[in-house]
Amino acid sequence: MIRINRIIRVLIASDFIFHVGVGFVDPIFAVFLVESITGGTVQLVGTAVAIYWFTKSVLRLPIAYFLDKKRGEYDDFYSMLAGFFIITGLQFTYLLAQTPNHIYIIQVFMGVGGALAFTPWYGFFSRHIDKYRENMEWSISNSSVGFGIAGAGFLAGFVAEHFGFAPIFIISGILSFFGTLLLLFIGKNVQLKKRDGFSIR
Question: Angle at the Cα of 139 (from 13 to 52), degrees rounded to 5?
């Protein structure tokens, strides 16, 4: 039987639920932009994806630098929470988007949320992973997310085909919210370090 410590279990469960939520949007995102956004084109799809990844990639390095400079894990924890809540809230804003500019703005903030969330998430996982189980626990994390996204993608196609795009973003937002809430269960385990180097749990 594989024994996994509590923090890693929570991180894996949270990541799974969160990515199942996001996985509802990814398969239909391009179709949504072309069919539901005024002036939506294939170019809009490419630009929207580029804006998200550019923003996220630019911000991750300075965020990582800042988080590494600060001792303890509270800054990492609150950065992670803020980022996931930003992404969660933005899932619902797609319901209000009407023009390409709306999409561009949402994608910029999605990139900000992604940088704030995933930069410290990897740090948390790396610090708390069980010794001698690194390969297994990373594999469990990645495989569970992969299975979740696969299932979400299949269901997203069915839901969009029969009920339209609105339920997709609502389901995505709700699941992402619950995935983010799970992170609160590791709040009391976050390490706080004073300037003199002593650590308090």
Answer: 70
**70 found inside a domain:** yes
Please state whether the predicted TM-score (pTM) of the whole model is above 0.85: yes
Tell me the C-alpha distance between 162 and 139, whole Å.
Answer: 35
Assign 3-state DSSP to the chain and report helix, strand, coil percentages, each to 5.
80, 0, 15
Full residue range of the structural domain in which residue 20 is found: 6-182
Residues with Cβ within 8 Å of 173's Cβ and at least 6 positions away in sequence, in order, are 21, 88, 89, 91, 92
* CA-only gyration radius of the chain, Å: 18
| Count of structural domains within the chain | 1
**2: confidence class by pLDDT, cuts 50, 70, 90:** confident
Q: How confident is the model at residue 181 (pLDDT cuts 50, 70, 90)?
A: very high
As given in the structure block, the two tokens for residue 58 are: 């630019």
Q: Quick one: pLDDT at residue 200? A: 35
CB-CB contact of 130 with 74 (8 Å): no
In this structure, are residues 172 and 91 in contact, taking their beta carbons and an 8 Å threshold? yes
